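Q: Given only this backbone (418 positions), what sequence would you predict?
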């Protein structure tokens, strides 16, 4: 029976150093509960990186050679916290092929190459776990695989990027500028090393791809998603949305309709009465509708060193338990269904449209031509904002085209139903 799990870690950045600390603090409790002494003993750092003091404090051997970790026969598992696709993909592949279990927080990689990597893990009879890749400290993936097997999810939507939620909160509550709010999110360790993926909705899109796999068993690619970020969101739109009774949040949605899915990410008008509207700063919330449980929401810090590190270590604990019980390398998510995307005419939503360069009458004509009903119309010095009744994507595309021919569609956002 296995009594020790020796681990190598790739990367000692924000989450890597946090993982070492979290394990050091919880090692005794983990041993008590699992019967396994889990320890991180070796770390891969970049040449020239100064981690000597940290390594001494936590009794780590440092190396700049990948092979010294993935080919070390005394190690059972490897944590990958380098991020991005290359060389993380090659590093994980090497670890799996050397018979090491792998834990990663890498959403970019798991969303784009997860299926392939899981196959490599299976072929080598080891586990590949990635709880920390979605919603930081919220234990959402394991919850979906365990607690929702007896249920059927119909939609899963949420705030899954801590950086942008932090920025939107600061911009709204403190009047902080976009640039300053982003700088703060970077300083606090929430943002990606290149924050483009945060602000343009790509990071949230990766997480929605993974959530869609776990919720419906379907693999969708980024190209299948409609993705918008928060770049260029104006004070005017934030204020107008509030006047209508909504907060603007960057929301990822994965909706199942008649066996098909539609996945999107974008700024959404969330009713002020909805639980997601109250989520602030770097916190995330994943709101699920399902036929059994009904409505449920999982809430917690979506970014940051210790919350994300805690999810990383929870994966190590799962591996330790499996090893102790002699369970042969289970994978995280075995649920697989053929991909089926919802046709545009069946993707129904209400929209917030901000239009300039067109008079009210002309805009009304455009809407009428596409049988789109305006529930609200506000004209502020020629900038017209419309809240539509529910329409399908074909109607939306036709309105957008007609507006673009006569004026400018400055902003289009989905409106979440109450
Ligand atoms: N940059 C990510 C975020 C980190 O802000 O949510 C956690 O995945």
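A: Predicted residues:
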């Amino acid at each position: 029976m296995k009594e020790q799990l020796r681990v190598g870690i790739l990367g000692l950045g924000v989450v890597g150093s946090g993982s070492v600390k979290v394990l050091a603090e919880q090692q005794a409790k983990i041993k008590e509960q699992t019967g396994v002494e889990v320890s991180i003993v070796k770390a891969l750092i970049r040449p020239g990186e100064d981690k000597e003091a940290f390594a001494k404090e936590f009794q780590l051997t440092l190396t700049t050679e990948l092979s010294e970790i993935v080919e070390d026969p005394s190690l059972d598992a490897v944590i990958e916290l380098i991020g991005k696709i290359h060389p993380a993909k090659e590093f994980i592949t090497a670890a799996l092929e050397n018979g090491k279990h792998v834990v990663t927080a890498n959403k970019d990689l798991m969303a784009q190459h997860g299926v392939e990597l899981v196959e490599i893990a299976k072929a080598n009879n080891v586990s590949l776990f990635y709880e920390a890749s979605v919603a930081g400290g919220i234990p959402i993936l394991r919850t979906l695989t365990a607690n929702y097997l007896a249920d059927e999810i119909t939609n899963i939507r949420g705030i899954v990027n801590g950086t942008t939620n932090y920025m939107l909160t600061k911009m709204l509550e403190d009047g902080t500028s976009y640039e300053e709010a982003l700088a703060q999110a970077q300083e606090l360790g929430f943002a990606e090393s290149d924050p483009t993926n945060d602000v343009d909705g790509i990071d949230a899109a990766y997480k929605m791809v993974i959530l869609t796999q776990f919720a419906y068993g379907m693999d969708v690619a980024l190209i299948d998603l409609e993705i918008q970020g928060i770049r260029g969101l104006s004070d005017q739109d934030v204020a107008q949305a509030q006047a209508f009774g909504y907060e603007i949040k960057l929301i990822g949605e994965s909706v199942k309709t008649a066996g098909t899915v539609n996945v999107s990410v974008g700024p959404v008008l969330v009713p002020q009465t909805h639980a997601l509207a109250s989520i602030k700063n770097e916190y995330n919330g994943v709101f699920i509708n399902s036929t059994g449980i009904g409505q449920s929401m999982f809430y917690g810090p979506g970014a940051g060193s210790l919350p994300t590190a805690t999810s990383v270590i929870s994966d190590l604990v799962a591996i330790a338990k499996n090893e102790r019980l002699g369970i042969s390398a289970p994978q995280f998510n075995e649920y697989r269904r053929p991909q089926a995307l919802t046709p545009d005419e069946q993707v129904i939503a209400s929209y917030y449209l901000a239009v300039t360069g067109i008079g009210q009458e002309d805009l009304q004509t455009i809407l009428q031509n596409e049988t789109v009903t305006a529930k609200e119309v506000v004209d502020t010095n020629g900038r017209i904002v419309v809240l539509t009744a529910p329409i399908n994507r074909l109607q939306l595309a036709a309105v957008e085209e007609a507006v673009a021919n006569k004026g400018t569609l400055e902003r289009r956002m989905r409106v979440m139903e109450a």
